[in-house]
Prior knowledge:
The chain has helices at residues 57-73, 94-104, 129-144, 160-170, 186-190; strands at 24-29, 33-34, 47-48, 77-82, 120-123, 150-155, 178-182. The chain is of the alpha/beta class and 191 residues long.
Amino acid sequence: SHHAKFPILFSTDKIMTIxxxxxxxxxxxxxxxxxxxxxxxxxxxxxxxxxxxxxxTPSFIEHIKSGLRLLASDPLALLVFSxxxxxxxxxxxxxxxxxxxxxxxxxxxxxDGKGELERIVLEEQALxxxxxxxxxxxxxxxxxxxxxxxxxxxxxxxxxxxxxxxxIPTIRFSKERxxxxxxxxxxxxxx
Length: 191
């Protein structure tokens, strides 16, 4: 018989017991794989990039920093790095590589170590922006047995309409409970 080559989406993960229970889902949509190196992500050669992503890595780092600042400011938040293994060169998900980048940079001094690290989780199945939302929201439910009351999405500004006008209404989540942090690559901002 044919066996699926995809990971099981719904496992028997135990519900986590962080107190207080998070109510705010911070979603960082991952876009590439950080491979590590001496500049800790500043050099584009430390990333596996698609040809059209040249010049995008500073915006990826800013997405992460924005999400970490949000996490540090909200004790009821859960931060999800969302992105699958998208490249054959390295058996690492985009989500794991973003967390690796955080560790390599000591979280840029943004987190003070008072429980934030246990509120960072990886969603390693999403291959596009719609699935970033679906899988991250489902992961939130699997971990805490409840749905988020608020969602903050951190991605590229040029994707704002896609998320807020299409994806969010499709999953029937209230747009009034969603914030969008859009950070485009500098070359797009300058144009």
